[in-house]
Write a structure and sequence with these properties.
This protein is α/β, with parallel strands linked by helices. The protein has a single domain, classed as 3-Layer(aba) Sandwich (Rossmann fold), CATH 3.40.50.300. The chain is about 40% helix and about 25% strand. Strands 6-7-8-3-9-10 form a six-stranded mixed beta sheet, with helices on both faces. A four-stranded antiparallel beta sheet has the order 2-1-4-5, with helices on one face. A hairpin with a 4-residue loop joins strand 1 and strand 2. The longest helix has 21 residues. It is globular. Bound molecules: adenosine-5'-diphosphate and magnesium ion.
């Protein structure tokens, strides 16, 4: 089943004086269960493409089927509903509500969800999502009482709580140190192995190689699109721990 089906997608930004061809004809398909990394230099169109995939923006022309539905004809209302039902978002800067507990942050998307869930159901689903990301013991912590990695895990729980068909992550490790980045990627990889479809923008080659497919954009076009043998993030983390220990030992010896 194709989750994403783009045909000749173009996006032109027009202002009074200039027009920018940000996407010049993108055609690609993404199947259920894929973990795709989108790379490309600054200005190549990554964010524009993610905004279209996330139904936050519309293409100037071209056809976009999301989970089999042609979204180009959707009204704003219908689009918002589809977004809530089908998509989860993770951002570089977490976008959590401050002074609001982890569990309340995760409950939030369910309040806008279509199904008439009871308060108790909402609470239980949020709790479960936080358990999945390993934060069962941090439910009542506010973002400023959490580390960067923990904040991003709350954001992932918030994205997953509505059980989206597609998870969109824009530079999810951009604000994290390298070890914490690996932990977040490990989490995404595990979610993907359980069946979650993930599209992730990153400018780091190291991070992209944990995906199963790398699409590179250049100047609004797909420059390359290849399946890869994904590196395993758990292994990378384990090796890294060994390296840390080695450094400590060397520190003691020198
Ligand atoms: P990336 O995320 O790969 O850095 P973007 O999708 O943000 O690239 O931008 C692609 C091109 O579109 C760039 O040339 C950028 O300057 C231009 N652009 C992006 N957003 C707008 C906008 N709102 N108005 C005009 N031009 C824009
Ligand atoms: Mg960008």
């Amino acid at each position: 089943m194709k989750i994403v089906d783009l045909k000749d997608i173009r996006r032109i930004y027009r202002t009074e004086s200039i027009s920018v061809d940000a996407l010049k004809g993108i055609t690609l398909q993404i199947e259920e269960g894929e973990f795709v990394a989108i790379m490309g230099p600054s200005g190549s169109g990554k964010s524009t493409l993610m905004n279209i995939l996330g139904c936050l923006d519309r293409p100037t022309s071209g056809r976009f089927l999301l989970n089999g539905e042609d979204v180009s004809a959707f009204s704003k209302d219908k689009l918002a509903k589809l977004r809530n039902r089908t998509l989860g978002f993770v951002f570089q800067s977490f976008h959590l509500l401050p002074r609001t507990s982890a569990i309340e942050n995760v409950e939030l998307p369910l309040l806008y969800h279509e199904e008439g869930l009871t308060w108790k159901e909402i609470h239980n689903r949020a709790k479960k999502a936080l358990e999945v990301v390993g934060l069962a013991d941090r439910l009542d912590h506010t973002p400023n009482e959490l580390s960067g990695g923990q904040r991003q895990r709350v954001a992932i729980a918030r994205a997953l709580v509505t059980e989206p068909a597609l998870l969109l992550a824009d530079e999810p490790t951009g604000n994290l140190d390298s070890k914490t980045s690996l932990e977040i990627i490990d989490m995404l990889q595990k979610l993907n192995k359980k069946g979650e479809t993930i599209i992730m923008v990153t400018h780091e080659h190291d991070i992209a190689h944990f995906a199963n497919r790398i699409i590179t954009l250049h100047d609004g076009l797909v420059k390359s699109d290849r399946a890869i043998e994904a590196k395993n993030a758990s292994d990378a983390l384990r090796n890294r721990v060994d390296e840390d220990e080695l450094e400590q030992i060397e520190g003691v010896l020198s």
